[in-house]
Amino acid sequence: MKALLKFSPAAGAVELRDVKEPSIADDAVLIDVAYGAVCGTDRHAIDSAGDQHTPRILGHEASGTIVALGDGVVRADLQIGTRVTFETDAVLCMQCTYCRSEQYNRCAKRKGIGTTTDGALADRIAMPERAVHALPPGVSLRAAALTEPLAVSVHAVVERSAPLAGEVVVVTGPGAVGQLTALAALAVGATPILVGRSRHRETLDRALEMGIPHVVNSESESVAELVKSLTGGLGAAAVFECSGSAEVAESALELLAKGGELVMVAFYKRNPDFDIDAVVNRELTLKGSRGKRPSSYRTALRLMGQGRVDTEAVIGRELALEDWQEGMDLVARGVKVVFRIHD
Predict the structure, then answer these.
(1) Each residue's pLDDT tens digit, 50-86
(2) Which domains does the chain possess?
(3) What confidence tier does 28 reach under pLDDT thresholds 50, 70, 90?
(4) Which of 19, 249, 265, 326 would suit a FRET pair with 241, their CA atoms being 20 to 30 Å apart?
(5) What is the chain's mean pLDDT, rounded?
(6) Crossing angle for the helix pair 201-210 and 176-187, nearest 10 degrees?
(7) In contact, 73 and 27? CB cutoff 8 Å
(8) Residue 44: its pLDDT value, please?
(9) CA-to-CA separations, 67 to 43, 44, 124, 134, in angstroms, rounded
């Protein structure tokens, strides 16, 4: 089968190659991958040197159709022909406190598809049945390829935050996760403000078309003034930091109301330097939001199935997997790319 393979630890050591089809364990299913989405993690894997998890198939956002079942698969909702998406947790200990409570993102022995074990940018992938989710009626395979980033957003907005219905929230960083975080906040009854810069103008315009009520170009408009006008001067209940910019994270505190939360969704090359006196005196909360959980996927799929979040609206370009180099160049420019693998 064909797969996008990082074949050595060297930077740029990636090719579309013929590889052996995966075998399936008794508790696993074999999936024909229909669509695979890519993000900055994949781009970083291609560009970085010293990667110890090679050779490895890339990709962790995908959807497809079941073509074979392991002998021990017991779930009635998983059958040959079932349209599915899947979590990224390929290996878990299933014994630690976190695994026993479905907090798989905290398992010390976790291995993730596309990052530490073979991923989904391939004709087929084998996944444990515990990690597989049947798609609701009406959710396309193309839309389902973005279930994973929506689950990341759901984890931040629903599972790591205080209730947000009726509140004003700010989302910094208008990439795919930022857009989906704003849409998730809107779905739970909040009023989101999505913040970007001049280079994100097209993305911000598209966000308005998606139904996000407020977008701000922070280089020409005041985010703080808009927040004050919408909250009677109090400030936002929460800021979701999705940009990965330490400077943006540091400035987010001034947007919060007393008692507000800064939820850190992104990763950083430099650790932000926060004004801890402001955190103490204004009783602010700093929270990390790492990845997602099975519950995040279940909620994400319900939101998609109910038509409350349209993940396809976030897709900027669809390409064949053979055009992966063009796709990665687009990802570097902030475009959300989906590769078509099987129709």
Answers:
(1) 887 899 999 999 999 999 999 999 999 999 999 999 9
(2) 2-146+315-340 (3.90.180.10), 151-288 (3.40.50.720)
(3) very high
(4) 326
(5) 96
(6) 20
(7) yes
(8) 87
(9) 29, 31, 9, 13
DSSP secondary structure string for all residues of 23-63: P--TTEEEEEEEEEEE-HHHHHHHH-S--SS-SEE---EEE
- Closest to 313 measured CA to CA, from 287, 338, 330: 338
pLDDT at 343 over 80: no
List the structure tokens of 183: 């849409």
Distance CA 65, CA 86 (A): 11
> 198 with 220: CB under 8 angstroms?
yes
Q: Tell me, rounded to whole angstroms, the distance of Cα 71 from its chain centroid.
A: 32
In b/e form, how buried is each residue of 261-289, taking b as 16+ CB within 10 angstroms? bbbbbbeeeeebebeeeeeeebebebeeb
Question: In this structure, what token pair is assigned to residue 94?
Answer: 């299933």
d(CA 219, CA 261): 24
Q: What is the pLDDT of residues 97-132, one digit of tens each?
A: 999 999 999 999 999 999 999 999 999 999 999 999
Q: Which one-letter DSSP state was computed for residue 288?
A: E
Name the pTM for this structure.
0.96
Q: Could you tell me if 35 and 142 are in contact, meaning their C-beta atoms sit under 8 angstroms apart? A: yes
| C-alpha to C-alpha distance for 302 and 253, rounded to whole angstroms | 32
pLDDT of residue 50: 81
Beta-strand (E) ranges in 179-249? 191-196, 214-217, 236-241
Q: Are 138 and 305 in contact (CB under 8 A)?
A: yes
Q: What are the E-state strand segments in the chain?
A: 2-6, 14-18, 28-38, 56-57, 61-69, 83-86, 89-91, 111-112, 124-128, 132-134, 168-172, 191-196, 214-217, 236-241, 256-264, 285-288, 317-320, 337-340
Taking alpha carbons only, the member of 102, 118, 227 closest to residue 155 is 102
- Residue 125's alpha-carbon distances to 36, 205, 248, 279, in angstroms, are 11, 36, 38, 45
CB-based contacts of 229: which residues, under 8 Å, 6+ apart?
none
Q: What is the mean pLDDT of residues 297-322?
A: 97
Local structure of 160: helix, strand or coil? coil
